[in-house]
Amino acid sequence: MKKHFSLSLQSIIIILISILSLSIFPGFLYPDTAPADRESREDNIKLFTEGSNKPLYDDFIDIEATNALLMDAESGNILWGKNENQEVYPASITKIMTAILVIENIEDLDEIVEISENASGVNHSAFFFDRGDRITLLDLLKSALIVSHNNATIALAEYIAGSTGDFVAMMNRKANELGAHNTNFENTNGLDSKFPGHKTTAYDIALIAKYAMENELFREIVSTSTDEILLNDAKVPLENTNKLLIYDYIKGIKTGYTENAGFCLAAFSDLNGRELITVILNSGVNTRERDALNLIYWADNNIKTVKLVDSQIPLESVKVGTNTRVSVDLYASEDISRMIHLTNNHVELEHSLEPVRTLPLKKNTVMGDLTVTVNDIDIGTISLINITSIDMPHIYQDVSGKITRQKIVTIACLLAFYFLVIIFIIFKNLLKKR
């Protein structure tokens, strides 16, 4: 009986110690292998989708024009539109296409040419040409873009293609290449009284203008307020028809007017670092410029560049290691900044983490991916990295401190248990002596 009791007591002691150990150190049997919880981060931000051909915003903007459009020149996104896909007359905005083809197809713009019979006369131009007049191709180009000289485009077309008809075919092919599929040119200058099919859209004009403004010479000419050319060695002053050039943030591009088209304007602006293309079609004589400025100012007041992801701010924390685990902060590998609307906004950052790694950990190790989604549109994925090397665990206070408290509790429980056992044995021996 004594032996049986002694064995039972030992068994009880072992069982109790095991239970106490497991209850205090559950991690010994069930280590925490789950990654850190991912926070759901939402910010009121609406991001432009690359090259969207539909307006991103429908804010009310007071403009008189029948057709209008505002494009972000960098991305090609349409920020705002009004009947932007309706086919209408473009008037002298046509000359944007004429000019860019001239620049791309003439090697020596300093060459002097003679005006043909077909290119002579007034033809509703700032000044008229006589047959046989001598002028450089560059001065013809300046005349077409700065003072909207209609005959100058005819002379340039004849030089390049031999005839205006063949040159117009080149214009339409180029428009199609640029994605301006709702455009049909029938002449080189936009005079439409005899050309009812000479039409385009505000959206197509913006595409053509964006392409043209990427050319340095074109950009330089359309931003010129005043200049002079030589016609038969005589100086002819030029004053730009674009009155908005009085503002230093307006860099072009072209005005236009016919009875069919109304007052038209394609403008390029760079206000507070934001480059925009504004198209105004079929506006009034006193409202064309105001319409353009209203669109530009709306963008300046409502569209801002915001840093969506900051590579200097930790986005996630993960546990790294096996027996000893260390918390590691993860950072985006690069910043993400975009132009956004200040009131129509929604962005989500979704983390995708790789399996837990073992120590040591090198600096800039890819630990996962960060996907940026705006209004349910995936706009890009970048890496999540650590920014410091880790040779040994460095977060001792949280990890080792927690284990120390567990040990103290365990030791206290064991001492209490052993004390009770000793008291029990002493008490039992005293009973036997009696």
Describe it:
Helix 1 (2-24) packs antiparallel against helix 9 and helix 3 (137-146) crosses helix 4 (150-161). The protein has 9 helices and 18 strands. A hairpin with a 3-residue loop joins strand 9 (250-258) and strand 10. The chain has helices spanning 2-24, 95-105, 137-146, 150-161, 164-177, 202-212, 216-222, 288-302, 396-433; strands spanning 41-43, 46-47, 67-72, 78-82, 112-114, 134-136, 226-231, 234-239, 250-258, 262-271, 274-283, 303-309, 316-320, 326-332, 336-341, 347-353, 366-374, 377-385. The strands form 5 sheets. The protein has a 6-stranded antiparallel beta sheet with strand order 1-16-17-18-14-13, with no helix packed on it. The chain has a 5-stranded antiparallel beta sheet with strand order 4-3-11-10-9, sandwiched between helices. Residues 1-51 and 394-399 have low confidence and may be disordered. It has 3 domains: 38-50 and 303-394, Peptidoglycan synthesis regulatory factor (PBP3), Domain 2; 67-283, Beta-lactamase (3-Layer(aba) Sandwich); 403-434. With 434 residues, the chain is of the alpha+beta class.
Question: Nutshell version of this structure?
Answer:
This protein has helices spanning 2-24, 95-105, 137-146, 150-161, 164-177, 202-212, 216-222, 288-302, 396-433; strands at residues 41-43, 46-47, 67-72, 78-82, 112-114, 134-136, 226-231, 234-239, 250-258, 262-271, 274-283, 303-309, 316-320, 326-332, 336-341, 347-353, 366-374, 377-385.
